[in-house]
Amino acid sequence: MAKINLETLREMDGYVASALVDLDSGMLMSGDGAGVDLELAAAGNSEVLKAKRKVASSLQLNDNIEDVLISLTKQYHLIRPLESNQQLFLYVILDRSRANLAMARHDLKRFEKEQDFS
Fold this sequence. Notes:
The protein has 118 residues and is of the alpha+beta class. It contains two helices and five strands, in the order E-E-H-E-E-E-H.
């Protein structure tokens, strides 16, 4: 897979940082943003997504996770498994005071459709 440029995600309202992460290894494949340890965030959020998938499987939900939202008092953290490659996910940090959550989810979905993650 070619290196994915995440810079276009900077156009999202409230953008702080973003990452493309390999779910199995927790490895940061691509990252953008200052002041955030994206390698640590990638590894930790891989565990979050794995845990949620395990629970969904145990509950026999027979559905796919579209995204996981972690709401902090000052930030939103969005974890979005890729539809085109379930072994990868996008991770975005947004400043809650400037972000539009509905638009952020829409922007991530559109970003995925514009990229080749194969």
